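The following block was generated as part of the benchmark described in Methods. Ligand: adenosine-5'-triphosphate.
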Amino acid sequence: MYPVEVQGLKKTYITRKRVGLFKTVESRIEALKGVSFNVNEGEILGILGPNGAGKSTLVKILATLLLPDEGSAKILGYDVVKERGKVRKHIGISLSVEKGFFYKLTARENLKYFGMLYGLSGKKLEERVNEALKAVGLQNQAEKFYEEMSLGMKARLSIARALLLDPPVLILDEPTLGLDPVTSRRIRHLLVNLAHQKRKSILLTTHNLFEAELICDRVAIISEGRILAIDTIDELKKRVADTVFIEVRLPSMSGLQALNILKDFPSNEVKIYHRKGIAEKIVISVPVSQAEETMEKLLHEFRASRLKVRSISILEPSLEDVFVKLTGQRGV
Ligand SMILES: Nc1ncnc2c1ncn2[C@@H]1O[C@H](COP(=O)(O)OP(=O)(O)OP(=O)(O)O)[C@@H](O)[C@H]1O
């Protein structure tokens, strides 16, 4: 059993729009068209997709806030439709930074309030509130009123609330949206620690490919209600990368000599880009199958011509390359 098991999940929104005085037209939006995946223990699974891909719909269903039309989703074996109460005891949810907190209560009071709602009381409640505050680094700001808190503090408080029951599964919708780089980094560090040290299973959505690349053990790329690919980032890159780039850095003024050497390079699939500057850079694109061999040949040719090379390396494709290739969209 996986901590999170999703099988053939479908959801269609039906909306009615008034046309004229008495007539309404129905419009159907298939937000999820049969989504299946699992999340392992101690794993961060990132859900990536362009706007309207179905990420929030998926997250809301897992958080028991929305009913699916078909398929099933289980958290620790409990069905999100038939066993909502049990599911809620085992998940921590952070859907939107701003929602649900009381502006006139302090961070601690807010957490206490939610702790009580979740069934905690007495010493246990105090303990869990303190632990949650500490986990997100808010122990020194616990007496600050919510309305006085910065966006970063609010984001951390939202994660603290998700941690109140010390749940094995966390579901987070864009946990670092709108946060400055330092706070984002702090939250990323916290999430990696929760997954890898505390063995929590984390499902998060993000528009930030850089972040996904940094912290997700696997990512699912979702578009128009379907998962286009789900795998580790390395595997996804391998799958889409038919071309890699070899970057050669040279001392200034030696670019032309290098280009001259490359003139007779034995492959017409090799493309060369040259950037002049203090340190000159030559980037050679080659089919992935020829990358290693090309690199060796390059080194050999440069050495034979006594050309000094500062560095030579193979540039990996980025997660953005994967995303663009799979969804046909640049950025998310
Ligand atoms: N309550 C609703 N009623 C009707 N249509 C909806 C509703 N919620 C979402 N949709 C539609 O369902 C599709 C999926 O939306 P969803 O919010 O799940 O996407 P998303 O991937 O979270 O997008 P974003 O990245 O913009 O948050 C979209 O076409 C959206 O317009």
